[in-house]
Amino acid sequence: MLKNATDGTVDFGKIEFTLDTLAEAVDKGYATRDAQGIWHVRYTAVEIVDGLPDGVSATVPSLSFEVSVEDEGDGVLAATVQGLDGHSFENTYVTNGGEPVSIALAGRKVLTYAEGLAPADITGKFTFTVTGEDGAPMPERTEVTNAKDGSVDFGMIKFTLDDLNRKWATEHPGGHRPGDACRWRGGCAQREAAHGVPSPTPSRSPVRCRA
Question: What is the reported pTM?
Answer without folding.
Answer: 0.56
